[in-house]
Design brief:
This protein has three helices and four strands. Strands 1-2-3-4 form a four-stranded mixed sheet. The protein has one domain: Gcn5-related N-acetyltransferase (GNAT) (Aminopeptidase). It is of the alpha+beta class.
């Protein structure tokens, strides 16, 4: 389902505000954006450390299979290390087998099951 203009505008304002916790990495090929990784810091009271949570990893369908997602996750790990973070964490849809094929080569799958409740 397409996002509303209000949601897109709000998210864009977060990503372009240097003071907001949300940020993004972009992948470019020949001056065109072919992928992005939206991310933010995430504290872990369990370990007493802070990591980076990858909210969205997107690769243009025309560029899939060319290493864009791998490059973005590697860059995010390097960013986490440079910032003194202890981990990078993300979730993906259970039926997103294409993404899971990549994720399984760059990170360990956990045993956690995620739940979400509206307010």
């Amino acid at each position: 389902m397409p996002e509303s203009e209000e949601v897109v505008s709000r998210a864009w304002s977060w990503l372009t505000d240097p003071g907001h916790e949300c940020d993004a990495l972009v992948a470019e090929v020949d001056g065109s954006i072919v992928g992005f990784a939206n991310h933010r810091p995430i504290p872990s009271p369990y370990t007493g450390t802070t990591g980076i949570f990858l909210d969205d990893l997107f690769t243009d369908p025309a560029a899939r299979g060319r290493g864009v997602g791998r490059a973005l996750t590697q860059r995010l790990r390097a960013l986490a290390a440079a910032e003194g973070r202890s981990f990078v964490q993300w979730v993906t849809a259970e039926d997103n087998h294409q993404a899971q094929a990549l994720h399984g080569t760059v990170a360990a799958r956990t045993n956690w099951v995620m739940y979400e409740s509206g307010v």
